[in-house]
Design brief:
Length: 388
């Protein structure tokens, strides 16, 4: 009941005000767009509109510069990252020439960190193939001396990059930090990427690589780690294994997983500009569309957006223990939380680990204490499930 002296506006009146403010399109019931893949309008509620009954959602322009508020509850190193980092310009992969230029710029921008990761975390890195799929085998520092309680076991790594960028070598900072104290081999899979190779090419490659690992390792000696798009691909792989009749690995770690390729999920809107790494219209929509070959209807396929899958044991089988790590500033926060709740409701073993003030795939920042803590947590999680 409304407090004495206040009248609750009728649904019709509220809808009329929301339309007038530009918050919802005329004729849309309740203003819920259902999280479609691409925004049909970029208009949010104008903050200066008279009698506007809502606070405007942030627009993509909010991601152009760093977010002003920096929490004092995170490390000084993490604060420095937030002060200096913003999403900035959008991703343009509209032509083959622009795809090539974008990839070259990405690799060039990561030359120093790629070399540093190799020098500090890995004893060796050898390119090869795994089930016919290009891959790189990384042995962590100390591996030759037999160091680590999981020595000789293997961590299969699926890299991020929105299914259009990156490689195992340019992205495996997180995997290296997790593997080093455990003595795990890292098998980084360079799956095919879009737009040249649309879904299901990446997933087919992940299945082929995993099948090849099973030829040399029992499933209890294999774990998965994926970050961002690689996290979504790792989850899709777990779902696909039941169809393939293949055993599940011992455990999986999903770091900031991209499990919903439409804009559905509260924080894909509300954390616009707050997450300094990702913003849907600027960085994700073009990649999502490229991944499905331009067919938006495929974005809701449960193996493309695995958050939409049926995780019940009857449908998905018994999945391995899954650790989901995500920052509280991460665009994918709400979808990571939804994934955790859905897994638990379905009776699957899952752990949810949110991190104060952290951004998308913060685990890859070598000099940030929270990244070291998170990768140590992931290593302990794997040790608990692989040392049996």
């Amino acid at each position: 009941m409304a407090p004495l002296g206040l009248r609750r506006p009728s649904a019709a009146r509220l809808a009329a005000v929301l339309v007038a403010c530009g918050c919802i399109a005329p004729g849309s019931a309740g203003g819920a767009a259902g999280g479609g893949a691409a925004p049909t309008s970029t208009a949010a509620c104008p903050s200066a509109a008279a009698n506007c009954a809502c606070t405007p959602a942030p627009t993509p322009a909010a991601a152009a510069v760093p977010y002003c508020f920096i929490p004092d509850t995170i490390s000084p190193e993490a604060q420095a990252v937030l002060r200096a980092t913003a999403v900035g310009a959008g991703l343009d992969i509209s032509t083959p020439e622009k795809v090539k230029a974008t990839r070259e710029a990405f690799v060039q921008g990561r030359v120093q960190i790629t070399e540093r990761v190799l020098q500090t975390l890995f004893e060796s890195a050898v390119d090869g193939t795994l089930g016919g799929v290009p891959s790189v085998l990384g042995l962590p520092r100390g591996y030759g001396g037999g160091r680590g309680q999981l020595h000789g076991k293997v961590l299969m790594y699926l890299h991020g990059g929105g299914y259009v960028l990156g490689s195992a070598r340019t992205q495996w900072a997180t995997a290296g930090q997790v593997a080093k104290p455990l003595g795990l081999q890292v098998q980084g899979v360079d799956f095919r990427v879009a737009p040249e190779h649309a879904y299901p090419a990446a997933l087919d490659d992940a299945v082929a690589a995993y099948r090849a690992l099973l030829a040399s390792h029992p499933p209890k000696d294999i774990a998965l780690l994926g970050d961002s798009a690689g996290g979504g691909l790792a989850l899709a792989l777990l779902l696909r294994l039941k169809r393939e009749g293949l055993p599940q690995p011992a455990a999986a770690v999903l770091c900031s997983p991209w499990v919903e390729l439409t804009k559905q999920g509260d924080t894909q809107t509300t954390l616009t500009g707050v997450d300094p790494i990702l913003q849907y219209e600027k960085k994700l929509y073009a990649s999502a569309l490229a991944y499905v070959g331009g067919d938006e209807s495929k974005l809701t396929d449960p193996l493309v957006s695995p958050l939409r899958a049926d995780f019940t044991i009857a449908s998905a089988g018994q999945l391995p223990p899954i650790l989901i790590q995500v920052g509280l500033r991460d665009t994918f926060l709400s979808n990571a939380a939804r994934l955790y709740r859905k897994l638990v409701k379905a009776g699957q073993p899952a752990k949810f680990s949110p991190w104060e003030g952290m951004w998308h795939v913060f685990q890859a920042w070598l000099d940030v204490p929270e990244a070291r803590e998170a990768t140590a947590e992931a290593a302990a999680f794997l040790a608990a499930h692989m040392a049996r």
